[in-house]
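User: ok so my PI wants both of these folded by tonight, can you help

Assistant: No problem, let's get them done. Here's the first:
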Amino acid sequence: MTHNALLETMLSTLVGADVDIEPARIAFERTRGGFAARFAAAIEVQLAVVAKPEVVIDVAEHPEELAKAELAELVRPAATGFLRSYPTKGELLDELDRIKRRHERRPSWIPTVDRYGRPLPSAGAEEEPSSVSAVVASFPELGAVTVQLPTDDEDRPEVPVLTGGIGELEMVLHAVLGTVGAEGVLGELHLDAAANEALVPDETCWWPRQRTGPVPAAHDPGVASELLATCATLGGVRVVDDSPEVIARALTAAGDWRFSRRWRLDAWDPTSDAGVLVTARAAFAGWAHERGSGLILYASGGAFHAHEGLSGYPGPLHSHLLCVTRSRAGTDAIDAVHRVTLSCPGPDWCHRGGCAETVEPELDALLSPLIEAGQTSGAMTGQDEVAEAYLQLYGATGFAEYADSVLDVVGSTLSGAGWVELERSTWDGGLEDLLLRRAEHCVRVEYDPVTRRVRLGDGKPWLESSLDLLAEDGVLTGTEGAEDVDTGDEAVERWGTDLLTAAQDLLRGAIESVPHQVESTILGLHPHADGDLRGPESMTLATEQVSSLLGRVGLLGSAN
């Protein structure tokens, strides 16, 4: 092969027509430094895909003390050059020196494997958060969707999501729209033009197309957005169209918007036989105010038509707003789904034969700042302080050193209504619980950060279990039916006055059961993060949702 032919081969290998260059774009944008550093990072990412993995071995501190057979077994998998079939011990030690020098000088972009061929993490790579996959099929309008739960514990989550509930829907929508993807908001995502065209009904499609048949939402974010823009129901709940007042109120109460990467769709207009370039983006958030809480989605974009020029609408995609409202009781049951169509691609392309478009100046005024925020989020580049701060607030990595927790909000809200904290625990795996008492009632609050679910229940059984701990510590004495609680200074220092007093009242029959148990998801938190309140609006969102839930079950009223 000639020198120039080799260069041509290298070029086609790195940036050929069938090569995915999006990882290179992301590496370029995320790397600090000048053009040379960014260009090198992009090239390294592309080379890593085609590079042959190198074997890494653990070099013994004193290899000369190993037997020849042991040395040969260690060296052969990672040999860097020719090694005779029956080398001497000296030759094996020389080869081991070469292997060691290669380990020290190997560029970080070259993939590595262990002696058994198992891939090893690259040097300096951030450890990915542990997660397990779960398939959700509760929303037939979207098809089966795989979501990630941030845990590797087989026994988690302990407070599971409600099947078909709004908490499960939140995870599904984030997954299909790519608003919490590992790539963050950087770069472009090319949509599947054939898959989006396949959504056009057969009776409407008069032109030949590449693909027919149903396409699930998990296949492509553009498909997901179009299904949400045109579905008649969501999770079996009827979608109510043209509801600008409901959606405007949700927009004013929404916070911590998370954006997808910019979508690019290279489409074709069969009517005029012209190419169409579409760019779009999804934004997704939780909302909460005194009358309710839920989720809100905004999909929008623009297009360039080869004959008609630029447009502020993403035809052949819809621009739309979708608002999901949870049960008035504050639980995860879905109470209502409202939608506003801002632009429709028309009856020849729309998957339901055309939509009534809403023109509402109030919505335009509310959406304008959101569009600008989406543009700014897409400009986050490099691993600098700004990008790290963005991840701390909106992402699933780069956790802040301290963040308020959902149980902090629950505790402070109940404290304002006269409840007293008796005990707070964090269990292996992250489950948190809080035991509180007011007058003759005890309530237990559990929070599972894996599902962002709060469970309220009777605290009396947990107070009873505390008696065993008090007995083991020698604080609870006496015989059955005649127990006594030590309230001396040492006992108070270890257990606190409130818990000891509650134990005394329990023994004399002054604690009653709380009859109800209720569960609810705290909406608006990153589904792959640690479940704490890190976003700028997360405290407000959580406080509104917690207050509504506690008020609905009567825990914020008077003790009577």
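One down. Here's the second:
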Amino acid sequence: MALSPHREAQASTGAGLSFAARHWFSILAFLIGAWAVFGHLGDFPLLAPDEGRNAEVAREMKEAGAWLVPTYNGATYLDKPAFFFRAVAIALDLFGESEFTARLPSALFGFGLLAALFAFCRRVYDERTAALALLVVAATPLYIAFSRIVIFDMTLAFFVCTSIFAAYLAEEHAGKTRNRWYLLAAFLGGVATLVKGPVGFIIPLLVMLVFHGSLRRFDAMKRLFRPVHFLVFFAVVLPWFVGLSLACPDFPYYGIMRESIARFTTPVFRRTQPFYYYGLIIASCCFAWSLLLPESIAAAWRKRAALSRPDRLFIVWALVVVVFFSLSKSKLPGYILTGVVALGVVAARVFAAAILDRAGVAAAVVRRASLALLGVMLPAAVAMAVIAARPELLEQRLKFPHEIFALFIPLMPTAAFSLGATALLAGVAYVRRDARWGMAAALALPLLILTVNFEVLPRYADTRSSRALAARLPKLPDNTEYACIGCFPPGLPFYLKRLVTLISADGRELTSNYVLFSLASGKPWPEHVVATARMDAWLQSRNHPVYLIAKYEKRPALEAVAAARGVPVTDIGAGHWAALLPAQQ
């Protein structure tokens, strides 16, 4: 196969050089990517509610040796399939229970996706574009966030993206090779379904249908639906679906009708957002690459007839994902993570073209984006410097507790430095008309946040985590039972390494849609979830001490129980109070 002119140049200039010398930029990209997903991975507490809940589900699966039915605080938890929880459970079992190990699967799948993206782009473009794509995606704030928290989206993104890669490569070949790529795509789509349900196969299928349709490749569209592909898909998915349905007969209705169809078509899960929501998410969570995208996509649309197939794939991919989830009644930032990967490649293609031709259209786009970045970062740096010098100017306008704001005041000078450094690099890129400086400017802010400004994250996480609350609890005898009235700090069971009984009117403090569905359908309440109406009888039945915890709104109920037993109520911080109730004789 003939090399492109750029590849021929790479091959000729690389002759006789060492591997490191020939591939230094790719090596650098992988090192930065590794730092983006693994750096400081365990250096901040689990965030509430998702990380604390998901880590505890995984811990309970590890303790029980379960593979099929997840539980949360002892209650059956079918909000999501077991695949991701089991991956986290394996990490906890192999390396111990910590924030690092709980986040390790997300980081591994995040880095694995970067490697797969590099391999795919190197195959369909060239090595420089592949390295640029790796850098852009790895330094995208949304990608950084989801690769280092205990949540499903990065694992799902890995299998959805690799399924699309395999389906695309299938049509680049013929015969048995094409069939093998398609079988791999079907297998990966099946595993994606095991991670988060039907969206795991819907997104790859929609992307490839629209992509082939845009090229009028109707035969390729038909090949997507070959019977053998369904066989592979169902061979992956059906054992889990049938097994779980036998163990939990209400799962087919809940999983299909509630978690999938109702989530997409109704506001029942209370995650509704306006149609333009994802435009705001891309602008903010893909910053500063998002400054390139409007002009780049508009230029691509004007020249759509001349687009290469890979370029068309990534543009179609991004549009399909954003439009699909914009139509959904339930919207969260992580839903479009795979689309953000595609947009990252679009941005990388612009930078690659700008570096090769400093007088071309792409170079002009990068220069204007650099000016826009300068226009954002310079005022932000000045504002941050002013607030660092006189924090009272902002403090008196805050609507959240001033003690939280006080935590971040010492960090503002370094934040002002980072914003200023980014502005400086953007200014150099604009003046010198050099896309390489533009790339450095766009990379600067996320990398500085992960290094000199990293302390912001632990301080923020401390305000959103149960770790500090768990650390403040007194050392109690092993037979003491922990219980919460009308509250359930996410992650508290994980840090205590034991279940915590919840006393609740309906169980909503567990933040589980399935638990709410199950209790509302009349099923028996789980052992560690007690109806508020039964609290007195439950307390009377305890033949061991109970450490009862409540937040402010339930403090009167706690004080009444404590007074009846002649024990004091203690302020344990973070808006919580507790009383140690003696065993009932």
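The radius of gyration is 26 Å. The longest helix spans residues 361-389. Good luck tonight!
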